[in-house]
UniProtKB/TrEMBL annotation:
SUPFAM superfamilies: CO dehydrogenase flavoprotein C-terminal domain-like, FAD-binding/transporter-associated domain-like
SMART domains named among the record's database cross-references: CO_deh_flav_C
UniProt keywords, alphabetically: FAD, Flavoprotein, Oxidoreductase
Protein name: FAD binding domain-containing protein
Domain of life of the organism encoding this protein: Bacteria
Organism: Jiella sonneratiae
Gene3D superfamilies in UniProt: 3.30.465.10, CO dehydrogenase flavoprotein, C-terminal domain, Uridine Diphospho-n-acetylenolpyruvylglucosamine Reductase, domain 2
Xref: Pfam families: CO_deh_flav_C, FAD_binding_5
Keyword Oxidoreductase: yes
Domain (FAD-binding PCMH-type): residue spans on this chain: 2-180
């Protein structure tokens, strides 16, 4: 029996062309970046879109612009490109580490930062907790308004299913240079390529007395969606960078999470390992300081 014909794929070279192609393709058409999430749609029992618009040849979506006050990352930048470009910057270390350690080398050379953000229903996306702790802003272009774009804080973007689809393309992710040191730690069970059991990303500011003055901590893979750990952020304010002390605080607050059961690990185990990951994150920040 003959297989179904693949959906048509447009390959524009500019963002206006991509927006026009999305509009022309009609309802349900979707952007296509690295394809590592889309190709597995049948495994998740999801239908492919009726048409795709490939973004890989659009130069402005492949750029990384690093300035003293902010970093702008094109949505079609791959994990491997991102890890290499951000490795010199301690304030962006969480995102560099997330990109460098995600999945496996083949996936890192294809998967994009925009695709990682847009993979709805993927609780183990490595880059998302790092973007949450770095207070990222997501820039979106719309076919209905091709002359302009809008920006959403990453938390608002993740909470709004309508932020993607409907002729919209994520174009850039913008990070303000805060000067905070950041870190990203993950726990896979067996080997490279495993989805992580739990992820902790943190950006910490320490004052002259060696005590925490500001903290942004995000957790991924534990629940159905990554999120900030605001309870722990408040609890460590004024604390020294003592891994054991802060891990103990994390243990006392871990019941704030309801772990998800999955093939990698049961939900209770995901929650149980969170304090250990927090301790590792703090130890890495203390060593860097």
């Amino acid at each position: 029996m003959q297989g179904l014909a693949p959906p048509p794929v447009a390959v524009p070279r500019t963002l206006p062309e991509a927006l026009a192609a999305l509009s022309a393709a009609g309802d349900g058409a979707a952007p296509l970046a690295g394809g590592t999430w889309i190709m597995r749609a049948p495994i998740r029992h999801e239908a492919h879109a009726p048409a795709y618009v490939a973004l890989g040849r659009i130069a402005e979506l492949r750029r990384i612009d690093v300035a003293d006050d902010e970093v702008a990352i094109g949505a079609a930048v791959t994990h491997a490109e991102l890890a290499k470009a951000l490795s010199p910057f301690s304030d962006l270390a969480a995102l560099a580490a997330a990109a460098a350690g995600s999945a496996n080398p083949a996936v890192r050379n294809a998967a994009t930062i925009g695709g990682n953000l847009c993979a709805r229903g993927f609780p183990a996306a490595d880059l998302v907790p790092a973007l949450l702790c770095l207070d990222a802003v997501v820039e979106i272009a719309e076919a209905a308004a091709p002359a302009g774009s809008r920006r959403l804080p990453v938390e608002a973007f993740l909470a709004d299913p309508a932020a993607t689809g409907g002729g919209r393309i994520v174009t850039r992710i913008v990070l303000k240079r805060s000067g905070l040191r950041s870190v990203h730690v993950r726990l896979p069970l067996r080997k490279a390529g495993d989805y992580p059991v739990a992820i902790v990303s943190a950006a910490i500011g320490v004052g002259g007395g060696g005590r925490v003055e500001s903290a942004r901590i995000a957790v991924g893979s534990v629940e159905a969606a990554p999120r900030r750990w605001t309870g722990l952020e408040g609890a460590i304010n004024g604390e020294r960078l003592d891994p054991a002390r802060i891990a103990a605080l994390a243990a006392s607050l871990a019941p704030e999470f309801s772990g998800r059961d999955g093939v990698e690990a049961p939900g209770w185990y995901r929650v149980r390992v969170l304090p250990t990951l927090v301790g590792r994150a703090i130890a890495a920040l203390a060593a860097a300081a």
